[in-house]
Amino acid sequence: MPGAGAVRRGLTFATGLAECLCFGALFGWSSLVFVLKAEGYFGSWCDVAPRANNATLVQGQFDNHTSAYSGPQCRAQHEWLSLVFAVASNLSNVLMLPSGFLLDRFGTAVARHVATFLFTTGNLMVAFSTPASSNLLFPACTLMGVGGTLFLMTNMQVGNLFSSHQTTVTNLYNGAFDSSAALFVVIKLLHEAGISLRTSFLCLSTGSFTGSLLRTVFLMPRDHIPYPLPEDYTYGITCGTSKTLHSKHTMTTTEEKNLPDEPVTQEKSFSECLMSRLYVSQLLWFSVIQLRLLFYVGTLQPTLHRLAAGQLSLVSHFTNAFGVTQLCGVLCAPWNGLISSQLKNKPRAAGESEQEVDLRSVVFSLSLTVLQCVLFSVCAAVPNLRLQYLTFVLHVVNRAFLYGTNATFILVAFPLCHFGKLYGLCLGLSSVFCLLINIGLSLLSGHILYVNIFLTLLVLLAFINPLVLHLHCRGLASQRAAPSKPLL
Length: 488
Fold this sequence. Notes:
The longest helix is centred in the last third of the chain and has 28 residues, at 354-381. The protein has a single domain (7-255, 266-475), classed as Growth Hormone, Chain: A. By secondary structure, it is mostly helical. It is built from 22 helices and 2 strands. It has helices at residues 2-22, 29-39, 45-48, 51-54, 75-94, 96-106, 108-127, 137-155, 166-179, 181-192, 197-218, 243-257, 270-274, 277-298, 300-307, 312-326, 329-344, 354-381, 388-413, 419-442, 448-460, 464-481, and strands at residues 58-59, 72-73. Helix 6 (96-106) packs parallel to helix 8 (137-155). The protein is globular, with a radius of gyration of 24 Å.
């Protein structure tokens, strides 16, 4: 049955890629905002906004669509929709900590059923919301964010099925998750063609429920995919008997018996991993870069309105350009994995472990990601509309490298049994950091240049992480090269 196993693994990989492409949700927020404004969500605030804010009113241009909102758009509406994104993106990441515990404790199947329920419920809430119930967007988008990220978390272990390409598969899935922003571009284009927001989200909820449920039952394991992968490992439901499940548990038991042969790092407790210098510096690295990327997405619409002098045709054009650019995330992410694979193929020093090789290869990816974010932040700070094309490209490349490198680092630096908790905690704590900083930056909303300068300087702090990891690798090399002292 080796052929059947290869087909199953191929289907698992392909359907996982499609799932990440369709269920990333909040990454396409800037396109969805355009539709929500046209529908009139939070439009009532334009009627009660102060006259100072009303000076920025622009008339909607979707009167030819039956579902469109042709009333004014104002700064208050911008701010409420930006708040929805800020709350949903940060709260959904905070909730990834209990999601990580759920995955590690109860396994893949249970976690995916929870993700299906959350994501489908969030889509249905958007589908049945109206401008009069605009506040429903807060819980709806939060549920979509939690469900989508939990799907990604369960999918990243699929790389263990392809041992020689584990890093590439992990980065590819993260890139596909980034490219899911294109889904809301499609919804925006359908809306402009006359398809209602409700119809689009009803179709999305139906597809997410059916597709994810079938994949959970037939193409994903009940527990976890081990690494390294045991011979004759099988998973999912097969026709006829329950022999597959017995084989899986047998292999898992065998793997547990062989744990003493694994590197010492595999025996670290969760608290030891959490308090380690590597994890703390990684958390700082991830937090500041994610803050810069999320701040740009959350303020993209008002930024485009300002740079386009309120011309909705230009704003729509650049919104579409940004959304289409996000689709390229799935093309950018594999390069990160390929770079790491090439670095891992360098000649290994005598006595160097597999984990040391993995960590050494990640140092370059960490440094390159920070450099990308610095360039992106500088371009985002320049008030030039055409320069935003380059900013869009740098944004999607940087985001693909950020999430792929973060997942890869946690996979190779810490025991697999703690991956869900450490990954979820990283997302959660970084979101708390982003939320606190965003509150401070909101007080400087009228001084966007100073905010951009501050964020650029903050990103430079992320260079600390690759330096810490580099010194850690040098320390391991020194210990390995030091001659053993004779016993006296």
